[in-house]
Each structure stands twice: as structure tokens, then as C-alpha cells.
Design brief:
Number of domains: 1
Radius of gyration: 17 Å
CATH topology: Rossmann fold
Strand order of the largest sheet: 3-2-1-4-5-6-7
Shape: globular
Number of helices: 7
Strand content: 15-25%
Order of helices and strands: EHEHEHEHEHEHHE
Distance between the termini: 39 Å
Largest sheet: 7 strands, parallel
Helix content: 40-55%
Low-confidence stretches: none
CATH class: Alpha Beta
Structural class: alpha/beta
Length: about 250
């Protein structure tokens, strides 16, 4: 069902080839958005996402970039402006996630998480800002994690990078107001990593008040709320079944 508020808007979704990024991109297409599908290495999956969007009757194009490289981000945003002529929505979704025991951490691994999860969102926001300010203004939705509130001991750099996403959200909301609104959806466990088993999934279910994992469509609902609620900015919405209220 097309949302007339979103029809013919242009959205950039980072990490849109697979998993939640793909789900968000397809949902925006269903609501009438044209979508810039960012990917880094997953070219086949990105092309499948583009094809699915085009089948809905909206415009969609793939854009490859390493979001940790400033020149590649700048080039991607320029290419999007040339392709679509505008940008109304930026969803900073791309991220990496893995267990990193403290004793195995070094500066290289630390920087890998900071660059992939935090610097990438900063660079996309920085170079998309001028486009987002045009027309009636735009919106940025950062995909965070409630691990920023409730640190997991085996995932220190991931948690710190997601805490940075929250700080980035609050700072950008002030800097870019009133033309650009900036919000964050702080996720709990939605889609388990593909290499994690049933035992881990059951453990995650037991660690939130709702006693289940979140659903991709619930992420979509929250992202769409952040995009369409014109009075919402600087908000961090925990979508984790209440896990942030409990101890790990």
C-alpha cells in the first residue's frame, strides 16, 4: 500500500543487499519510494534487491562503495544526485557484528568496528546533508543497538561503536535542524547471525521482557515512523522487547 507522504521520495539504504537492509529497502519501495541500493561486496544480492524494487514500479539503482573510504562515499552521493536528482531519506543500516573477546582485541580490530559501524554513518550523513536539506527537507534514520545501553562483555568494540551511533544521532539532530530530522532505532536481537545456533537464539529470547526475537516487519514499522513523524527528531527508540531494562 503506497504511503502518499513517501511516494516519489528518494531513499538511500546502506547495506541494502541483504537481511534487514534489504527488508527496509523493499518496504520503502512498497510505499512508493525510489531507492538507492548501497552494497559493498554483495553484488548479486544487491542486483536482486534492485530487481525486486523495479518490479514494484519504482526506480532503483545499485551503488557500490566502501563506506569507510571518504572519497568513495562522496562519489556515491554524487552519483545518487545525478541518477535521481534528489535525496530525501538516508537509512544508515550497514554494520558489522562479531564476538570479540577483550584479550584478543588490538588497535586494528578496534578501528575495523569503529570505521564500519560509526565512521560510515558519519560520512554518509556528512556528504548527504546538502541533498537532504533541499526541497522540503529530509530525514536520517540510524540503525543502532541497545547494546549501547547494556554492554555485552564479549562485544566491546561493537557496543562502543553503537553507543557512538546514538551520540552521532543526537549531535546531527541539533546540527541539521530544522531542515533535516535525525533519529535512531536501537535494535535488540532481530535476525540471528547466520552462524549462531538454536541455543544462542533461545538464550536471546530469555533476555528480553517479550521472551521472543524481534521481527523484521517491526523494524520496518519503527523506521517508517521515524521517517513520517514530522515532529520527531533526536529520538532514540529502543526496539528490543525490553532487554535494555534487564541485566545481561
Amino acid at each position: 500500500m503506497i504511503n502518499m507522504e513517501l511516494k516519489n521520495k528518494v531513499a538511500l539504504v546502506t547495506g541494502a543487499a541483504k537481511r534487514l537492509g534489504r527488508t527496509i529497502a523493499l518496504a520503502l519501495g512498497e510505499h512508493g519510494c525510489h531507492v538507492a541500493v548501497h552494497y559493498h561486496k554483495s553484488e548479486r544480492e544487491a542486483m536482486e534487491t534492485v530487481a525486486a524494487l523495479q518490479a514494484m514500479g519504482v526506480r532503483a539503482s545499485p551503488f557500490r562503495a566502501d563506506l569507510t573510504r571518504e572519497e568513495q562515499v562522496k562519489a556515491m552521493i554524487f552519483s545518487i544526485s545525478q541518477t535521481f536528482g534528489r535525496l530525501d531519506i538516508l537509512v544508515n543500516n550497514a554494520a558489522i557484528f562479531s564476538r570479540t573477546p577483550f584479550e584478543q582485541l588490538d588497535a586494528t580490530l578496534w578501528r575495523e568496528f569503529m570505521d564500519a559501524n560509526l565512521t560510515s554513518a558519519f560520512l554518509c550523513s556528512r556528504y548527504a546533508a546538502d541533498l537532504l536539506r533541499e526541497n522540503d527537507g529530509g530525514v536520517i534514520v540510524n540503525i543502532g543497538d541497545t547494546a549501547a545501553f547494556n554492554f555485552w562483555t564479549g562485544f566491546l568494540p561493537y557496543c562502543v561503536s553503537k553507543a557512538g551511533i546514538i551520540a552521532l544521532t543526537l549531535g546531527l539532530a541539533k546540527i541539521l535542524a530544522p531542515k533535516v530530522r535525525v533519529n535512531c532505532v536501537a535494535l535488540g536481537t532481530i535476525l540471528p547471525p547466520e552462524d549462531y545456533g538454536e541455543e544462542w537464539e533461545q538464550e536471546m529470547k530469555a533476555k528480553n521482557l517479550m521472551q521472543r526475537l524481534g521481527k523484521p516487519e517491526e523494524v520496518v514499522q519503527t523506521v517508517l515512523f521515524c521517517i513520517t513523524c514530522d515532529y520527531l527528531t533526536g529520538a532514540v527508540i529502543p526496539l528490543d522487547g525490553g532487554r535494555h531494562l534487564l541485566k545481561n
